[in-house]
Amino acid sequence: MWRAACVNAVEEAVSCCNRGAFDDEQPDHLSRRCRWPNRFPTLQSLGFLEHSLGHPDEARDLYGKALDLFKKQQDSLGQANTLQSLGFLEHCLGHPDKARGLYDKALRLFENEQAGLGQANTLQSLGDLQRQAGKHLEALETYEKALSLYASEQEPVGSAYTLTELARCRHALNQIDARDVAFEQAFQAALACGVLSVPAYAKNALEEITGGSKPAQAWLGGRGMRV
After folding, report:
1. First and final C-alpha spacing in the chain
2. DSSP at 23
3. Cα(105)–Cα(121) distance, integer angstroms
């Protein structure tokens, strides 16, 4: 029932955009500019919903439709965001080469538009791909680039997630001191952002690495942290 309600709501939004219903009250110069762009993020959002619900074929189809429309409007940022979403879909489906190609295309578009947050998000996804393939040194370099951009954008959530993955890489490379520094910074950023799921994510990673809840709590307690 939840899925049906969400899908119906988004499809109704698409239908409204197709009819231009959102633009009836807009001045003419704005309606010409806004009528089409409203539709594309709706298709992209529906694609994300289908992906989240485990329907990759439906998600891929919707992302493809959104991408075609963004191309027609020469909307580079829309294309970049959709390519990143497609890359994440292929990543989750276990197609790393396809994912890498899509991430690379998205990254070039974000760079051309000087969209720092988009670059950072794509680099983080690319770093995850490299780390999961066991390419920890490459992943470290990619995560560091993402982290620099997140800092410039003042985005603590992205910083916290990236620092957590940096800590995983450092651990895999047996760089224990550097790992602990990355974890400390990850928790500082996570607690600063005010989103409960973010410190929980970092804590789960710490528990995986230290061997459970008790050693993780001991690690945190030794640094005066409560999560």
Report:
1. 35
2. G
3. 13
82, 63 contact by CB (below 8 A) = yes
Query: How large is the angle between the packed helices 156-172 and 197-210, nearest 10 degrees?
Result: 10
**C-alpha span between 197 and 94 (Å, rounded):** 25
**What distance in Å separates the CA atoms of residue 176 and residue 197, rounded to the nearest whole number?**
25
Cβ atoms 159, 202 nearer than 8 A = no
CA within 13 Å, CB half, 77: 8
CA-closest candidate to residue 178, choices 195, 166, 187, 190: 166
Of 175, 181, 176, 146, the closest CA to residue 161 belongs to 146
Rounded distance, CA 131 to CA 135, Å? 5
Residue pair 73/51 in contact (Cβ under 8 Å)? The answer is: no
Structure tokens at 46: 């529906």
The pTM (predicted TM-score) of the whole model is 0.79
Residues in Cβ contact with 148 at an 8 Å cutoff, skipping those fewer than 6 apart: none
pLDDT tens digits, 31-63: 222 333 344 457 777 888 788 888 888 989 999
Q: What is the pLDDT of residues 129-171, one digit of tens each?
A: 999 999 999 999 999 999 999 999 999 999 999 999 999 999 9
| Radius of gyration, CA atoms only, the chain | 20
Of 215, 216, 214, the C-alpha closest to 201 is 216
Q: Cα separation of 146 and 117, whole Å? A: 9
